[in-house]
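Running this now, will post back.
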Amino acid sequence: RAAPRTFAHIETWVFDLDNTLYPRHLNLWQQVDDRIRDYIANFLKVSPDEAFLATGSTDKTSAVFNIGLKREVSRYTHQEQVNSLAFSPDAKYVAAGDADGMLRVIEAATGKEVSRPAHSNSINSVAFSPDGKYVATGNEDFTARILEAASGREVSIIRHAEPVTSVKFISGDRDALQAFAGHSLYQHPWHTQDLIEQGCSQL
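Update: finished.
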C-alpha cells in the first residue's frame, strides 16, 4: 500500500518511548550526546572537555573516550574479555580486570601499560583506593586482593567462602574495603596498622 502523499518524502522516523515523534531538524541524537556528556561532567565535577568514559568489552579491548571532544583517546588489546573497569581518582589511569585473571593498570591518555599482576582466576570487580595508590580486585577464586597500582605488588589478600563479585574502598574513621560475596557484604580493614591491630585483638 502506497504511503500517504504528505509523508512520501520521509525516509526515517524517530520515536521516543512515550511515542513522541521527533522531526529531523531537532537533531535528536546530538541532544542525547550532549546530555550524556553533561551528566558525566557533572557527576565527575569537571568541565565537559575533561569528561572521560572507559569501556571494556567481550571483544577483548578496552578504550577511553573524551565525551566532550567526542573522540577516542586510547585503546588497549587484552587476551580475554574485560569484566570490570575503574578510573583512578585523578582519571589518569584505568584498572581493567579480565576474565583470564589479569589485572592491568593502564595510562588513560596513552593506553600504555603500567603494571600487570596475574590472579589465579577471573577478576569480577576492580576499584581504586581514594588516593589512587592501590587497586582492589574481587575474584572468582573467592578472594579480594589489594595491590599497589604502580608496581602490581600484592599488599593484602582476603579470603571468602564464595566468589567475590564486587569491591569498593570506603573512607571513615577507619578506611576499609567492602566486598560482596554470595549474598553477603563484608567490610575489611586493609591498612597494615589496622590489620595488625585486628590480629592482636583476636589473640
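The helical segments are 28-44, 192-201. More later if anyone needs it.
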